[in-house]
Amino acid sequence: EVQLVESGGGLVQPGRSLRLSCAASGFTFDDYAMHWVRQAPGKGLEWVSGISWNSGSIGYADSVKGRFTISRDNAKNSLYLQMNSLRAEDTALYYCAKDRYGSGSDAFDIWGQGTMVTVSS
Amino acid sequence: DIQMTQSPSSLSASVGDRVTITCRASQSISSYLNWYQQKPGKAPKLLIYAASSLQSGVPSRFSGSGSGTDFTLTISSLQPEDFATYYCQQSYSTPPLFTFGPGTKVDIK
To answer: Rounded to 5 degrees, what are φ and ψ at A30?
Structure first.
């Protein structure tokens, strides 16, 4: 079964850091680009960051550029999001999503169930 | 950056109705446009990619059209399980740099 399972969310104070993980199974992880997408409570979807199959191409939304870092470990079938200098507006459900292709410029065909990040003092 | 708009923001419809949702890009994105469905408490689901290609397993009552800046998602005969929020997404920009539309909520009339 193709599956993405996120972990690492929780309650964190403003200015602190958090690292999200996404464990992939059921497909050849290193063939595909991967992405993080977030959704604030009651709001729409916001693409956060994406990484190509070989980490050669990486992109970030302007809202997180310079604070968040995406990475992947193909040997461990895992995707990560290092989030630094967190702000209240980063509070959201964070989804891991699989790209249809390796380059990272296509639709997202598999999604995890998300991990909640709450930034509050 | 490419901005995406959707209209309407919400609509009420009945089972069996034909429903059309419009998505517009702030600049030409060729056919790099995808559509997702999201139900409350669930992850989004890919419906249409590359403007008009139906994702595997998605019912044929869903269809997409358009190119350039203007796109539509059509549900030919609305079913009870189709009440959800629909998002468009552009995948034109590189390096990975995506934008979602604000969403269209379809509820029961």
So the answer is: -80, 10
